Amino acid sequence: MEFIDYYKILKLEKTASADEIKKSYRKLARKLHPDLNPNDKDAQKKFQQINEANQVLSDPDKRKKYDQYGKDWEHPDQFRQKERAQRPSDNFSGHHFSGDQEGDFSSFFESMFGGQGRAAPQAAFKGQDYHSEFNLSLTDAQNTHQQTLVVNGKNLRITIPAGVEHNQVIRLKGHGAPGMNGGPAGDLYITFMIDSHPLFKRLGNDLFVNATIDLYTAVLGGEITIDTLNGKVKFKVKAETQPGAKVRLKGKGFPLYKKDGQFGDLYITCDVKLPINLTEQQKTLFSELSKLG
Fold it and tell me: N or C: which end of the chain has fewer CB within 10 A?
């Protein structure tokens, strides 16, 4: 197996910290994603390389083995066994092999180093796991939908359930690197990154939004219309609503993950807007109201 310099792929020094590895991977993943580079025939290969490098270097145990054993990091026991076998042994010093013994000598080293015909059976190993991040908007995350990923140069169509959370990880079994010597393929782990929304804030399955209410509606009560992720809804404002008051709309929040028909709540914070550019008549009326108070 050819040695692959994972540090070079992620543009890092060997002394890079965990945060530096994570930061560099995210930057390169956004830059090299195949969907963003449709004209680059090598985009899929580059994207696969940075995922593989991140999968190894972001795991402290795998990184330690990689730093110590290089290309043989996945099979350190075999590496050590082979290294010991290659060292001169005192048990063979002073002996000369000739004639018929030459066949035994060759057979011995064939069994030791895996020669053809008499090689010992090689153990099967599971392939490497792949790790990838997938960005979703808050609107996309609220609906069950399909997305296409590029894995090992092939398109993989997956269904993303409604209600997936930020930093949630799902495993796709058997979609990692191929196994060795007949071993099973690795798995694909996808971490979902939910982008922030300009209006709504999500906490668990609940959504939070601010609604502007004019002074007269706050004082006298009334009905206003606000936006939700699923369209507009109307709700009643109680008379004498105070600035910062919260109203809960049950079942108008975010869908629960893999629980059809169940939703969190929508919490509305009322921002009372004071009137500006008052006419003289309005100022007079407010003055009279202040005297009554």
Answer: C
Residues with Cβ within 8 Å of residue 109, at least 6 apart in sequence: 115
d(CA 248, CA 266): 6
Domain that holds residue 280: 201-292
Average pLDDT over the chain reads 80
User: Six-digit token pair at 161?
Assistant: 């359930």
Cα(46)–Cα(56) distance, integer angstroms:
16
Considering 174, 194, 214, which residue would you say is the last residue of a domain?
194
Q: What is the DSSP letter of 87?
A: S
E strand residue ranges, 152-265: 154-160, 169-172, 188-194, 201-203, 206-214, 222-228, 231-237, 246-249
| Cβ contacts of 271 within 8 Å, gap of 6 or more | 210, 211, 212, 213, 243, 244
Indicate the residue among 194, 221, 242 that finishes a domain.
194
pLDDT of residue 114: 47
Measured between alpha carbons, how far is 139 from 136 in angstroms, rounded to an integer?
8
CA distance 131 to 52: 7
**Cα(80)–Cα(89) distance, integer angstroms:** 15
Tens digit of each residue's pLDDT (9 = 90 or more) over 27-62: 888 788 776 777 887 887 888 888 888 888 988 888
Query: What distance separates the 2 farthest-apart alpha carbons in the chain?
Result: 123
Q: Is the pLDDT of residue 86 over 70?
A: no
CATH code, 245:
2.60.260.20
Average confidence (pLDDT) over 85-89 = 48
Judge if 141 and 187 occupy the same domain: yes
Q: Which of 112-116, 136-140, 199-203, 288-292 is predicted with the least confidence, judged by mean pLDDT?
A: 112-116
